[in-house]
Design goal:
heterodimer, A: mainly alpha, Helix Hairpins, 0% strand, B: mainly alpha, 3 domains, two-stranded antiparallel sheet, two-stranded antiparallel ribbon, 28 helices, 71% helix, 4% strand, elongated
């Protein structure tokens, strides 16, 4: 089945999603939003993997996506656990209030 | 048997004695005065006797080994390979040095034994014997060294011992509160220093010329260079060898005038009588003062080269002749001075000066054997006379103590002025001290030159030689011999004859056997000492004897000629040594006997029964002889040299030492340089340099850290941005630049 959609569109969409993710990480203060933005960036990368896998007719990119999803799941589990722990001590998940590493 | 390897023992034994006595002697004596004195005294004496026995074995070895000099090396003393400079400490065992060793240790042993009795009860008994052994040690270094430098070590060492022993009772003050004994020691040191200066300069000249100070190398080098008319270069200046040797021998003469108490440096010897009497006998009569004569005899080759070459000092007089004249004039003037002395030891002191003058005159006129012969016999009879005078003084002190204890003091109110050494207080002692009288008489007659005592033979040999080769010196010496007999008669009469002039003399007692036994032994030596070099009556006998193996008729002449290289050189025709074959000239012997008897007779006529009381003036006090006898050299020393020296030392102390050295050099130069340097390193180098680097490193790190801290905001997004920028950077790099 010939490809109906040009690869460039996938790249553009992926870039837009990644940029949104980056801006979300840099600009938002809520830790949950931050995690979602990180997920967005991961999935933009996943999208690109899948698009190129199809475009090149190879399965490597699709296999890698499964790994990324697995790692992302683990990451979310650890990250949410951290956020819960922080919320318990600071009663807040505002990322600007977590600045104990300030030099 | 060959015993030359034993030679170092003669130095080691006295060292053992002096170390034991120096370290433990005082404790022994304090723990048990009687036994302690016996122990330390006999220890010192036995060490000296041991050295005498070793000398005797060396003597026998030399007899068995053909008299040739043996060098016994001990160790390398000064070794500078880069400068090719090597001084060996070696001992030269030859007939001359063994003769001196025998005299030093033989007479020394007798005097040690005598001193055990004489010094009995002295609080510093052990110190005295320590010094005596130290003296023996240095004197043996002096005579046994194989080079001038080693000899000079002994030369200085005996000078030190002389100083220590003259001022042995240094704390005693005389009537005017002056520390006379300490001053006498200093005077001896200073006068000798003038002479030693000459010896040092002479040694420097010798070393410059020959590159060595070993006797044998110097003498053989001197003869070779003399035969080759060698010139000695001093920088650009080229000087003939005899001129250099004239300077050397004249400088040696200066040393001799100091050590052997000749004009003009003799003045220390009479003052040296401040020391204990055994010291006067050992050091200032028998041994140390003869070191100068030994130096002259040892350097005979140098003097004979000067004599043969005809080199003179400023065209006036050659050094051997100068030596002879110095000796003759000293003999003459010292004999005159002895006329006016009332102290029994001062008479003997001037007599020693006079007799040393005889020896020096003999050495200067080439009669080296006669000089050594007189040295040996003089050691016997002058040691005898000094020890005898010590016995007399001991007896007088005994009599004086007896008076004080017997309660006679009230009737003898002149005790304040009493001096046990003053002959005016003596008189009639021959009955109180018979043994001392007999031995003293033997010594005195030997000194006067009465046949057949030892003094006659040795003095006769000197006179015989000078009658043949130097008539003016013969005349001066003959007059001195007359004077000698005269003052001998005066002393004998004042001490032993007539009536006692003081209660102490009436109660004088004979000395203990420990003191009289050495006297008797010395008296025996004085009687038979002439056999050492008994002259032959005819030339034929002398010639016949020269064909004998030397071991049979052992005469000093055939014994010593193996050490006197100039004898052999004269026979080869290289040197023109004036040499008298040893035989008796009836003319000279007659003259000498007539002078001796005449002098004694004259003395008897003048002093018979005089002085009657201790305050009567001397019979010669109004005659010109008396005034001549007060030679101004001593007052020159006391009034000229001493104030000059004092002013010089005050100037040295105030100006050179204090103003220049302390105030200027120490306080200004050294201290200021040091303080400036210290301030520079503290304030500049340390504070600004070292601290600047260390603090700067810290401050730079801090400043850098303060800047870098700003990047650590603690906000997660800052780090996220950094990661982003990093990722973008890497991307840009790989896409556009790493191509």
């Amino acid at each position: 089945m010939p490809s109906a959609v040009n690869i460039n569109w996938y790249i553009a969409l992926s870039s837009i999603l990644f940029t949104i993710g980056v801006l979300g990480v840099l600009l938002r203060r809520n830790a949950i939003i931050l995690f979602m933005s990180v997920e967005l960036m991961l999935n933009s990368a996943n999208l690109l993997f899948v698009a190129f896998a199809r475009h090149l007719g190879q399965l490597d990119g699709q296999v890698l996506v499964f790994f990324v999803i697995t790692v992302a799941a683990a990451e979310v589990a650890v990250g949410l656990a951290l956020i819960v722990a922080i919320f318990r001590t600071k009663k807040s998940i505002n990322i600007d209030e977590i600045n104990l590493l300030k030099g | 048997m060959n015993t030359f390897n034993l030679a170092p023992l003669i130095l080691i034994l006295p060292v053992i004695g002096l170390l034991l006595n120096g370290l433990f002697g005082r404790r022994f004596v304090e723990a048990n005065p009687a036994n302690g004195e016996r122990l330390t005294g006999w220890l010192a004496s036995l060490m000296t006797i041991g050295a005498f026995l070793v000398s005797l074995s060396l003597f026998l070895s030399l007899l068995a080994h053909g008299f040739e000099p043996i060098i016994v090396p001990l160790f390398n003393w000064i070794d500078i390979p880069s400068a090719d400079f090597l001084v060996n400490w070696a001992m030269q065992v030859d007939t001359l040095s063994v003769t001196m060793m025998l005299v030093v240790t033989g007479v020394g042993s007798l005097i040690h034994i005598y001193a055990i009795g004489y010094m009995h009860g002295d609080p510093d008994f052990s110190r005295f014997f320590t010094y005596l052994n130290l003296f023996i040690f240095f004197m043996l270094i002096l005579v046994s060294g194989s080079s001038y430098l080693v000899m000079f070590v002994g030369w200085e060492g005996v000078g030190l011992c002389s100083y220590l022993l003259i001022s042995f009772w240094w704390a005693r003050l005389d009537k005017n509160g002056v520390p006379a004994n300490a001053n006498a020691g200093r005077k001896a040191m200073i006068m000798n220093r003038i002479g030693d200066f000459g010896v040092i300069l002479a040694m420097i000249l010798l070393f410059w010329t020959f590159g060595t100070l070993d006797y044998q190398a110097v003498f053989s080098g001197a003869v070779e260079m003399f035969e080759a008319n060698h010139m000695v270069a001093f920088g650009g200046l080229s000087v003939p060898l005899p001129t250099v040797l004239t300077a050397v021998t004249a400088l040696f003469l200066l040393g001799v005038t100091g050590k052997s108490a000749q004009i003009p440096l003799y003045t220390w010897l009479p003052d040296a009588m401040a020391g204990p009497t055994p010291v006067s006998a050992l050091i200032h009569a028998a041994t140390m003062v003869t070191a100068g004569v030994y130096l002259l005899v040892r350097s005979n080759v140098l003097y004979e080269i000067v004599r043969t070459s005809g080199a003179t000092i400023l065209g006036l007089i050659s050094t051997p002749n100068l030596v002879a004249w110095v000796g003759a004039l000293t003999a003459f003037f010292a004999a005159l001075i002895a006329f006016s002395q009332n102290d029994i030891k001062k008479v003997l002191a001037y007599s020693t000066v006079s007799q040393l003058g005889f020896m020096v005159a003999a050495a200067g006129s080439g009669a080296y054997v006669a000089a050594m012969f007189h040295l040996v016999t003089h050691a016997f009879f002058k040691a005898l006379l000094f020890l005898g005078s010590g016995s007399v003084i001991h007896g007088m002190e005994h009599g004086h103590h007896h008076l004080a204890h017997a309660g006679h003091g009230a009737t003898h109110t002149d005790d304040d002025g009493f001096d046990p050494q003053d002959m005016r207080y003596m008189g009639g002692l021959r009955r109180r001290m018979p043994t001392t009288f007999i031995v003293y008489l033997i010594g005195s007659l030997a000194l006067a030159g009465i046949i057949p005592l030892a003094g006659f033979w040795s003095k006769d040999e000197i006179l015989l030689h000078d009658q043949t080769y130097a008539t003016p010196i013969f005349i001066v010496l003959a007059i001195a011999a007359l004077g000698t007999a005269f003052y001998v008669a005066r002393q004998l009469i004042m001490v032993f004859f007539g009536k006692p002039r003081h209660a102490a003399a009436e109660h004088a007692a004979e000395s203990p056997a420990l003191m009289t036994t050495p006297l008797v032994v010395l008296a025996g030596l004085t009687v038979f000492g002439g056999l050492l070099n008994l002259p032959y009556l005819t030339r034929a006998m002398a010639e016949a004897n020269h064909n004998h193996p030397a071991g049979i008729f052992l005469m000093l002449e055939s014994w010593l000629e193996h050490s006197l290289a100039s004898f052999e050189l004269a026979e080869e025709g290289i040197l023109a040594l004036p040499r008298t074959p040893v035989y008796l000239s009836l003319l000279v012997a007659g003259i000498s006997t007539a002078l001796a008897v005449g002098g004694l007779l004259l003395g008897y006529l003048v002093y018979r029964g005089r002085p009657r009381t201790s305050s009567e003036p001397d019979r010669l006090a109004r005659t010109p002889i008396w005034w001549w006898s007060v030679l101004p050299l001593n007052s020159l020393y006391m009034k000229g040299f001493v104030p000059l020296f004092n002013r010089f030392s005050v100037w040295l102390a105030d100006k050179v030492d204090w103003a220049f050295w302390h105030d200027f050099v120490h306080d200004r130069v050294i201290r200021d340089i040091f303080v400036t340097g210290a301030e520079f390193s503290a304030n500049v180098l340390d504070a600004q340099g070292v601290d600047g680097v260390v603090n700067g490193a810290g401050k730079t790190t801090q400043r850098l850290a303060r800047g870098l801290r700003l990047t650590q905001t603690g906000y997660a997004r800052t780090y996220a941005l950094a990661v982003l920028l990093g990722a973008v950077g890497l991307l840009v790099y790989f896409l556009f630049m790493a191509g």
